[in-house]
Every structure is written in structure tokens, then in C-alpha cells.
């Protein structure tokens, strides 16, 4: 699947498909050595801590908006239309306007093949998800579709008979390393910063998601270092900028991969494709490749469902998601991300200034002296500050570290943690998830967690997010 995604990303970037293949080999190889995200395929100034500014609603909205842009960029291939290059603010809307104004230019044969490919991909992937535990394997529908459509395109000579675009010639072998032209740096530095920002945001978001799902640690600075290296070194081999790919990450999940060795094996397979299989991809129809791209973005597009949980837990997060998404689709992913970060910080600061208790205390242990003598296994922790995306992770880590030490000293008695929530003047979705995660993690340490002093809204939010 890696080589398919590499070709697809190269097409989306308007460069030759072979550069995507190079990126599918070099970038995951370097990340597998230096990165910590075991399901990722994609330092020096300790700027990894800035990831705390990337709240879940912001990244979710930005990635959904970016996926919307990608789907829009594939419309011309799905419809077989010749379309001028359109970009800039509101470019997505201009593209759809052009399509409706020139609807007569749609090629029926291309549209039919695109539609059939979409239906086959969606149905097969849904069946894979539903029955993979029973049949024990996943049907490689992407590979099968590529082989069948390429063969049909070759036998029917569709580029001539139907005017269908194909991938075209892909050279074999790896290029010799060459220093990138530095004279153009001053012309692309602003755009490069935006690409780097969005790429790292997506990568760290996927790494966090994987670490939360499979319970292994992530170091932000190490991730930043690995992400930088996996873009610097491949640039000497004509690779396009890269980041973690949600599609590739989800495939790693389904394949039950546990370490970065999966990426190393995938790199070997991509290398074989580059040297031996690449010429056979000449006849792959672009409309089929576009269909594979669109279906692969399903996981990002269905993030619209997050709006329901944000509305039920914290309506400010709902507003942040909507605004970030709108800015992203109207302008670009980097603008959407910057807007989302600034807007979420502004909302957080505004809520702090409106809070009734104007003190920021992550954990204030004020009952221990009274309770520990009489109840040696009891620990009372008071959270005396707003709990939201800027401080939720710190609270989570501090409480777990404190309880682990406490459990070590009290190994002969049952430990109970009482979380006093009187001081939580407000909290967002990230804060609620942090509390539920604390409860789940401590339960694994045989520690009972009790909540006291909870407001009505906090109780509803905890119940909605699955807290006992």
C-alpha cells in the first residue's frame, strides 16, 4: 500500500509519481530509526513542548479541512476533465464553480470507471472491517483494483479510445543524492514553514493517537527530531515533503503491527517496486488512483462526527472546530492550523479571565495531613484550577506519578484516590478525557478513583465520555 500512497501523494503535489515512490522509501526508513510512533509511517531547541498548543478540536478540524481540499483536487481526475490550475483563497469553491459551468466536458467513460472503483473500494473495505476477525485476513482490494484496471486499460488502449489519463512512465532505480538548490530558498521559505507546521501537527497527532491506543510513551522532542531528519535527508533524493499518513497508520492498526520493524519491511517492499514493478504501473488510470485516494481519506472525513461529542461536552470546542474548518477550506491547511491555535488560546485565556477563582494550581494536596494517619490507603487530591487542553496533560502525568509512588509505599493496603473537583471552574473536552483517562489508568494500578465536588455539567460530561 505504501507505493500506492506515494504515487498518490506525488500526483496531489503536481510532481512526477516517481518522487512519491522515493519518499515512500526514504522517509519511513529514517523515521523508523529515530521516531517513537510505532504505527507511524511517515529537538535541538526543545520546541516539542509546543505541541501542547495543538488541541484535539484544532487538529481534527484542520485535518478534515485538508482532506476536503484533497478530495477537491481529485475531482478533475474522477470526472476526466481538463481543468486549469486553480489555487489561492476560496480556490476550492472556484474549482467546483468551474466544474458546474463546464459540466459538458465530463468524460462518461472516466466517470463510470471512477464510480465503479469508489463503490467497489467502499464496499470491500466495509466488509473487510466487519469480517476480518472471522476470515483472518484483509482483502487487498486496492492492489487488486490496480492490477485489473491497469490490465483493462492496456488491453483496450483506453488513453486513445477514451482519452483516459494514465500514470505514465515511471523510471526504475534510486537517484544519486544531490544537494537541493539553495538559491530558491528565499522564495519558498514562507510556504515551506506552513508545510512543515502542518506536516508536524499531523504526525504528532497520529503519534499521540497511536500511543494512547496502544499505551506506549511518546517524546515530543524526539518526534520533532525524527520528523526533521525524515524531511532533510530525503530532500537530497528529490523526495517531496512528508509527514505521517492517516491512511498508512490505520493500515498498521489493522495489520496488528507493534514496532517500527513494520515500516522497515514496507521500505524493502517499496524498494522492490522501485526497481522491478514501477514500469508496470504505466497503464494505471488516474481516475482509479483518485478513487483510492478519496476512499483512503474516509477516516479523516468522518471526523465530522466529532462535532456531536464537542457539542455535548464543551460548546466552545464545537465553535473552535467549526471556525478552524471554515478557515482551512477557505484558505489552506497552514492558515487553518495557525488560526485554530491562536483562536483556541484566545478562548482559553478569555475563559480563565472570566473564571471565579483566579489561581492556577495544577494539584493542591490539602487533606493529606488529616486523612493519611486515620486512613493510610486514602489519597485526596484537589484540582484548584481550570482543566483544559493547556494543562490537562500535566495534571494527568503528575497524578499518575504521585499515585505510583504512593502505591509503592502502601503495597500492603488498598489505595483509594479522591479527586476534589471543587476548584475546576471550567473544563473542555480534553480536560474531561484527561479525568476519564486518569480513572482508567489508575484502575490498572488497582487504585479506586472517586470524584467529589463535581458540578452538574462535569458529571454529565464524565458520564458522556464513559467514566464510571
UniProtKB/TrEMBL annotation:
UniProt keyword annotation of Transmembrane helix present: yes
Name this protein carries in UniProt: STAS domain-containing protein
One Pfam family per UniProt: Sulfate_transp
GO biological process, alphabetically ordered: transmembrane transport
GO cellular component, one term: membrane
SUPFAM superfamilies, alphabetized: SpoIIaa-like (SSF52091)
Keywords: Membrane, Transmembrane, Transmembrane helix
Residue ranges of every copy of the STAS domain listed in the record: 368-468
Topology with respect to the bilayer: Multi-pass membrane protein
Matching InterPro entries: SLC26A/SulP_dom, SLC26A/SulP_fam, STAS_dom, STAS_dom_sf
Gene3D superfamilies per the UniProt record, alphabetical: STAS domain (3.30.750.24)
Membrane in keyword set: yes
Membrane-spanning ranges: 6-34, 83-99, 105-123, 135-157, 184-208, 265-298, 318-350
Amino acid at each position: 500500500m505504501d507505493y500506492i500512497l506515494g504515487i498518490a501523494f506525488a500526483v496531489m503535489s503536481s510532481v512526477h509519481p516517481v518522487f512519491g515512490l522515493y519518499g515512500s522509501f526514504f522517509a519511513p526508513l529514517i523515521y523508523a530509526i529515530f521516531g517513537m510512533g510505532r504505527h507511524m509511517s511517515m529537538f535541538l531547541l526543545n520546541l516539542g513542548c509546543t505541541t501542547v498548543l495543538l488541541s484535539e478540536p484544532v487538529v481534527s478540524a484542520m485535518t478534515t479541512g485538508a482532506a476536503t481540499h484533497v478530495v477537491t483536487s481529485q475531482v478533475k481526475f474522477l470526472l476526466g476533465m481538463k481543468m486549469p490550475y486553480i489555487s489561492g483563497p476560496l480556490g476550492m469553491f472556484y474549482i467546483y464553480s468551474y466544474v458546474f459551468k463546464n459540466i459538458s466536458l465530463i468524460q462518461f467513460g472516466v466517470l463510470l470507471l471512477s464510480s465503479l472503483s469508489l463503490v467497489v473500494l467502499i464496499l470491500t473495505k466495509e466488509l473487510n472491517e466487519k469480517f476480518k476477525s472471522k476470515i483472518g485476513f484483509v482483502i487487498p482490494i486496492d492492489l487488486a483494483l490496480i492490477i485489473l484496471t491497469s490490465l483493462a486499460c492496456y488491453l483496450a488502449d483506453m488513453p486513445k479510445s477514451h482519452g483516459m489519463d494514465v500514470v505514465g512512465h515511471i523510471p526504475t532505480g534510486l537517484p544519486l543524492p544531490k544537494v537541493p538548490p539553495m538559491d530558491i530558498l528565499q522564495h519558498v521559505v514562507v510556504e515551506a514553514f506552513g508545510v512543515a507546521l502542518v506536516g508536524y501537527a499531523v504526525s504528532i497527532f497520529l503519534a499521540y493517537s497511536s500511543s494512547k491506543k496502544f499505551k506506549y510513551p511518546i517524546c515530543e522532542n524526539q518526534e520533532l527530531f525524527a520528523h526533521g531528519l525524515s524531511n532533510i535527508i530525503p530532500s537530497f533524493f528529490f523526495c517531496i515533503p512528508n509527514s505521517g499518513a492517516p491512511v498508512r497508520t490505520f493500515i498498521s492498526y489493522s495489520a496488528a503491527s507493534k514496532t517500527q520493524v513494520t515500516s522497515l519491511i514496507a521500505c524493502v517492499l517499496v524498494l522492490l517496486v522501485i526497481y522491478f514493478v514501477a514500469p508496470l504501473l504505466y497503464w494505471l488510470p488516474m481516475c482509479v488512483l483518485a478513487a483510492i485516494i478519496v476512499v483512503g481519506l474516509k477516516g479523516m472525513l468522518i471526523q465530522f462526527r466529532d462535532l456531536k461529542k464537542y457539542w455535548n461536552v464543551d460548546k466552545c470546542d464545537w465553535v473552535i472546530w467549526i471556525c478552524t474548518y471554515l478557515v482551512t477550506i477557505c484558505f489552506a491547511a497552514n492558515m487553518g492550523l495557525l488560526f485554530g491555535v491562536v483562536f483556541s488560546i484566545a478562548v482559553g485565556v478569555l475563559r480563565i479571565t472570566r473564571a471565579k477563582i483566579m489561581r492556577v494550581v495544577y494539584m493542591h494536596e490539602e487533606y493529606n495531613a488529616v486523612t493519611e494517619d486515620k486512613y493510610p490507603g486514602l489519597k485526596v487530591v484537589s484540582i484548584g484550577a481550570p482543566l483544559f487542553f493547556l494543562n490537562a496533560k500535566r495534571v494527568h502525568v503528575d497524578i499518575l506519578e504521585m499515585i505510583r509512588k504512593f502505591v509503592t509505599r502502601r503495597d500492603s493496603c488498598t489505595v483509594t484516590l479522591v479527586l476534589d473537583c471543587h476548584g475546576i471552574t471550567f473544563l473542555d473536552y480534553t480536560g474531561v478525557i484527561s479525568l476519564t483517562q486518569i480513572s482508567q489508568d489508575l484502575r490498572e494500578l488497582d487504585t479506586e478513583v472517586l470524584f467529589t465536588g463535581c458540578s452538574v455539567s462535569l458529571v454529565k460530561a464524565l458520564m458522556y465520555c464513559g467514566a464510571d
